[in-house]
Amino acid sequence: MQKLTLKLNDKELEKLNAAEEKKQSEYINLIASENYMSPAVRMALSSVTANKYAEGYPGARYYPGCDEAIDPIERLTQDRALKAMKLSPKVWEVNVQPYSGSPANLEVLGALVKPKGHPDGADTVLGMALPVGGHLTHGHPVSFTGKFFNFVQYGLDTKGIINYDQIEKLAGEHKPRLIICGATAYSQKIDFKRFSEIAKKHGALLMADIAHIAGLVAGGVHPSPFPYCDVVTTTTHKTLRGPRGAMIFARKELMPAINKAVFPGMQGGPHNNNTLAIGVAFGEIMKPAFKTYAKQIVKNASVLAKELKKRNFTLVSGGTQNHLMLIDLQTKSVSGNEAQKILYSAGIIANRNSIPNDPRKPFDPSGIRMGTPALTTRGFKEKEILLVAQWIDEAISDPTAKNCARIKKRVQTLCKKFPPPGF
Fold first, then answer.
1. Which end of the chain is less enclosed by CB atoms within 10 A, N or C?
2. Which residue, among 138, 54, 147, has the nearest Cα to 104 in the 3D structure?
3. Among residues 7, 42, 53, 358, which one is catalytic?
4. Which residues, 6 or more positions from 361, have their beta carbon under 8 angstroms from its beta carbon?
5. Active site residue 235
6. CB count, 10 Å around CB of 212?
7. What angle do CA 91, 244, 52 make, to 5 degrees?
């Protein structure tokens, strides 16, 4: 019905949308931050709730007409998010209104940290450096987080593992108000307990950004940050398979300040259709099938990593314990940008990515990042992942147009057997 309506009303854009759907059907998607929503989540996004303004929070809106449906939707979404993460509402609260992960992180900083130029002096925040796997919003200088707040960055040890000893030392030197843990290109499990010990020792609050691993946490295949943290942020897509939004979980005593930072501090009215879609997604997350899915993500990533290593690919930190891996391509004599283009011509999508101590520029780095959430949603298991690894190797080893076209045909044949949900 939605496709027919678009086709009847705007053939030009319908054609482009159809082209995107075709691409998503025919390509192997290894982008670690992407996934496929269920038909129910997609339907929620196009619901009539998108027509309603609802500035404020349930029970305290600035627009009338929210009591009957909009408020109950937001409350139910909050309840489901807490239940999915096994959190007591007596200890934790959650804000489901952030538009995306970057605003969510900035809103936490605005609520809890004194910025640069504050009359009482700026607070210090420790964050993981972008070049070694952190996120822009963990204090990179080009991000507003780095521009407005006083960040000190930490990195990895010589084995490619988070350098907890360095964090301990920096915390002792700078006495941070907040420590941020979490990453966007880190393939190992995060020791939240160690982070908590460091934070408590030096009087800091601890925030985890679990945008990438939230689905693994909910599925029980990655350690949970909640027993150790004061604040946890996450996007709602990636491994959670929801729409593109974000959430901020926080201990109850911190939430009033965070709520004010979200609205009216940084945002206006929430996107109610997105809230509805998040609620639908968390309804799916609490079903047994999601735990099976989360386990398979990790299995598939492990198989892909091991198979690529057999084919002489170098993996940062030696492998993976979650959904993604970061590949150092220097031994393959190809840059990340070149590899990205080669694989795309072979029907495989993966994104270029900097590696620790990368000698190349960020726009054309030495690495490429791969993840298995999207393939797992389509039903790929170990058998199919072995083929994916083989095709990656064949394309990088022989990047001629003829060879890549041959691989692409095989990719398309396999993808037809595993259509995305609702396609």
1. N
2. 138
3. 53
4. none
5. yes
6. 26
7. 85
| Given the residues 93, 123, 209, 284, the one annotated as active site | 209
Neighbours of 309 (CB within 10 A): 16
Query: Residue 123: left if φ>0, alpha if ψ -120 to 50, beta else—which one?
Result: beta
Active site residue 311: no
Q: Which tokens sit at 419?
A: 């259509």
Closest C-alpha to 208, from 12, 221, 194, 416: 194
Please provide residue 127's backbone torsions phi and psi, each rounded to the nearest 5 degrees: -145, 155
Tell whether the model's pLDDT for residue 7 goes beyond 90: no
Whether 67 is catalytic is no
406 is catalytic: no
- Annotated active-site residue 15? The verdict is no
Residue 251 main-chain phi, psi, to 5 deg: -65, 145
Chain position carrying tokens 């300040």 = 257
**pLDDT(245) > 80:** yes
Q: How confident is the model at residue 6 (pLDDT cuts 50, 70, 90)?
A: confident
Task: State the burial class of residue 337 (Cβ atoms within 10 Å of its Cβ: 0-12, 13-18, 19+).
Answer: middle
From the candidates 42, 114, 244, 299, give the one annotated as an active-site residue.
244
pTM higher than 0.90: yes
Q: What is the per-residue pLDDT for 1? A: 55
Q: 36-73, pLDDT tens digit by residue?
A: 999 999 999 999 999 999 999 999 999 999 999 999 99
55 catalytic? Reply is yes
Residues β-bridged to residue 371: 324
Residue pLDDT, tens place only, 295-325: 999 999 999 999 999 999 999 999 999 999 9
